[in-house]
Amino acid sequence: MIQNKSRDMHETEHDAIDTHRVSLKLSPTAVALHLRSKLQRRRMAKDLAETQGNDYKCARFHLTLKINYKHMKENKILVLGGTGKTGRRVAEKLTGLGKAVRVGSRSEKPPFDWENQETWNDTLEGMNAVYITFQPDLAVPGASETIEAFTSLAVKKGLQKMVLLSGRGEKEAQVCEQIVMDAGIDWTIVRASWFNQNFSESFLLDPILAGQIALPRGETLEPFVDTDDIADVVVASLLEDQHDGKIYELTGPRLLTFKQITAEISKATGRDIKFKPLSIDEYKNMLREHQIPEDFLWLIDYLFTEVLDGRNSSVTDDIEKVLGRKAKDFSEYARETVAAGIWEPAN
Ligand SMILES: NC(=O)c1ccc[n+]([C@@H]2O[C@H](COP(=O)([O-])OP(=O)(O)OC[C@H]3O[C@@H](n4cnc5c(N)ncnc54)[C@H](OP(=O)(O)O)[C@@H]3O)[C@@H](O)[C@H]2O)c1
Fold first, then answer.
1. Which terminal Cβ of the chain has fewer Cβ within 10 Å, N or C?
2. Against a cut of 0.90, is the pTM above it?
3. Pocket test for ligand 1, best of 105, 196, 247, 306 (most atoms within 8 A of CB)
């Protein structure tokens, strides 16, 4: 009788695991591997139940999910904005580690466009985790609705982890962060300061090639951070459980103003690059003359008025805490960029 009861329980448990296996698209081998250490899991579940006050069955189920997820991490990772400044590096590093990666962007197949929800489903198909870099910025009006819709679809499609790139000091972006935190799956939030690579892979490259950086907020101290460091933290967050439920604030090791950055680039390139201070209105007018769209000007206004008001004028050691090494200094980034020939004008 006792034996039958135990067999019944075993069968019910087995059915439950099998249903779970199919819904999570795990191979029978992966499940067999989990079951091999069943006894050990029983003990761990008891400990978990005792420490967290859950009942034993609930704790065991929780543990099974965690263990299944560990195996799923060996599977597919979606990198949104995977051709951009952080995404490209994250995709390359993951691929280098032998992970299966899908890049999401408008130019990929299948295409992914934040502005067209119909493109999301195919890109999410078969993915287990996602690195989210939103466009143009989590603080823009409407971003939270888009993130809400995206995260619910991601959860529905069976994803188990989201790593979100956010902007340091952007209160509006924190609404989106909270949506990711509340989605019911594992998450890590990576809040970054201004990227070094804005000077070599973005809107500040052309002014450097032309010999003059003209910007507002020339005196604000900012801890510019390298996207290589951000990518390393993101990769660790995607692959290692200890980063679940963490918010990281990533900065470089040194506070610099745009004026000082200009001097650093001048020194590294050996060229005379000038800094011209502008008011925010002068800067926006200059961008308007270059036919920059009004919604981008809204973002410029927000970033230069609110975020660059000095609130981020402090460094953190989160990069060192996660990676066990110092964050890259701007001078090292400048040396590498010079060596790559990126700041050499065409003639
Ligand atoms: N730049 C900084 O200093 C900084 C600092 C902190 C936080 N952030 C945050 O980092 C995120 C990325 O910003 P970023 O300026 O550095 O850009 P980025 O990652 O270099 O962005 C380019 C990437 O986004 C893709 N993309 C552009 N528009 C898209 C759209 N509508 N739908 C889907 N993919 C799109 C591009 O590919 P396709 O063109 O092929 O679509 C490309 O892969 C933003 O959320 C920003 O707020 C930036």
1. C
2. no
3. 105
Residue 1 has which token pair? 């009788």
Q: Which two tokens stand for residue 127?
A: 């993915």
Q: Does residue 84 line the site of ligand 1, with CB under 6 A?
A: yes
* pLDDT (tens digit per residue) in 19-74: 554 554 444 444 444 444 455 556 666 666 666 666 655 555 555 555 554 544 45
Does the pLDDT value for residue 310 go beyond 90? yes
Give the count of beta carbons closer than 10 Å to the beta carbon of residue 139: 23
Query: pLDDT digits over 186-202, tens only?
Result: 999 999 999 999 999 99
Using the CB atoms, write b or e for 42-72: b if 16+ within 10 Å.
eebbeebbeeeeeeeeebbbebbebbbbebb
By alpha-carbon position, which residue is closest to atom 16 of ligand 1?
A: 85
- Give the contacts of 2 (CB within 8 A, at least 6 positions apart): none
Pocket flag, ligand 1, residue 119 (CB < 6 Å): no
Question: Hey, what amino acid is at 114?
Answer: W
Encoded amino acid at 324, one letter: G
By most ligand atoms within 8 Å of CB, the mutation choice from 90, 106, 119 for ligand 1 is 106
Q: Please report, for the chain, the start and end positions of each structural domain, with discontinuous segments joined by +.
A: 2-71, 76-256+310-339
Burial class, 28, CB count within 10 angstroms (exposed 0-12 / middle 13-18 / buried 19+)? exposed
Amino acid sitting at position 202: S
Read off the tokens for 300: 């410029």
- From the CA of 201, how far away is ligand 1's center (Å)? 11
Cα end-to-end distance, the chain, whole Å: 89
Rounded CA separation 253/224 (Å): 8
